[in-house]
Amino acid sequence: MAVYTDVPDDELAAFLRDYDLGEVVSCKGIAEGVENSNFLLRTEAGMFILTLYEKRVAPNDLPFFIALMEHLATAGIACPTPVKARDGQALRQLCGRPAAIVSFLDGLWPRRIHPFHCAGVGAALARLHLAGSSFAMTRANNLSLDGWRRLESAVGERANAMRAGLADEIAAELATLTQLWPRDLPSGVIHADLFPDNVFFRGEQVSGLIDFYFACTDFFAYDLAICLNAWCFENDGSLNVTKAKLLIGGYRTARPLDEAELRALPILARGSALRFLLTRLYDWLNQPSGALVKPKDPLEYVRKLRFHRGVASVSAYGILP
Question: Is the pTM of this model over 0.90?
Fold first, then answer.
């Protein structure tokens, strides 16, 4: 379960006295997620999500995340809306952790990905990018090239414990991406972690986007490449071209991709695969004893990385350049 900090009843009650939400009816830990402690909170005013931000989230980044959700919600994006206390502040302290309450979104995240999911998330991602274009704050992506170098250094030869020769493969890929990484593509606020468990559906329609705690300023097409990796591969490691075509096509219905973005997509997909390979590998190798959250499989992204390495053009994703 992704609950790292237990919240005693008396401390929760004291915390909520600063809000106009009434008394606590129930508060239950949420199993999904790996970064923060999340609780499904029911009060006399309704359902909410209570989040305690754990050590991996830099406190200095939290005002960006909170303000971004407020901005996107105001712009019509279905995302959690921060709830402000009586003093007008949404970010507070609970059990020695920064904490916030946000609105509850209806819907379910898809356990099995169908083609319509991919079309829907592509369009939703583009709408998010358009809505974020008027957001004044910026945040550097600390999990781009410089962040990958730090992770590669931290993992080092221990990568070979996962698979023989993996350390050299990562080093070679990082060197190649450093040379080929685009320098000038359309950019703005991106989600940077829009995996299936961060997208809610009601029927075939997207009903909400959640978990903005990797959001940053980067290439829009890189965000699309992250979704390509997260949504369009089957369990056997093969790319589902139909899903990829619908994902990219859905995106283009709301925001056109220019020629440079399409040309860069295979490289961006390689970078996305390396990013999640490295973060998963780091978590796998540094899992604390007795941890309740099982690290995700890094080798899934080795397979995806190798696929994209063999892609010569965006046509491999079912899209005409």
Answer: yes
